[in-house]
Fold:
Amino acid sequence: MTLETLAKDIAKSAEVEASAMVKVANEEATAILAEANAKADTIRSEASARTEREASQIAREVVASARQANQKEILVARRKVLDETFQSASDELGNPKLSGRASLLKSLMAKADNIGGNDYTIRPVELDRKSLSEIAGKRSIGEPIAGLGGFVLESPDGSVSYDMRFDTLLESSWSETLAEINSILFD
Structure:
């Protein structure tokens, strides 16, 4: 065997071996690329699913927040209507030309007759002083008090008083019937 043949055999053997190595390397590269693509697909899929979940969660939160804001606005609007209704009733009761004012005062004076004797003092709201003076009977008329109308019935020593002012009666009635008022206004 000559050197030239030996060199050709070694070159051929190296070529076959190199070709096999390149083939294995290509197969490994293809497998690595396939694995990388599979991982990338998995990562994209997981990221997409996570993004969808997060978007869905954000959408639920936005809807819940919007509902809460709407409910708050409704409550504020209802409160405004209730306040305006109360103010309207107050304005009506404070009107000197209120229809039935005299009969209301007479009714309150009849209650006062059942509560205290003639020694009790009537402290009127200035608006009703004249009318109350006419129906007070033997009771004295004291200093005026603030209010929409009506009076305070006060014991001789000032230790006991009964508030029969329109505004106090309105507030009491309003508190007792607020559920019914809500139902009438908003249902």
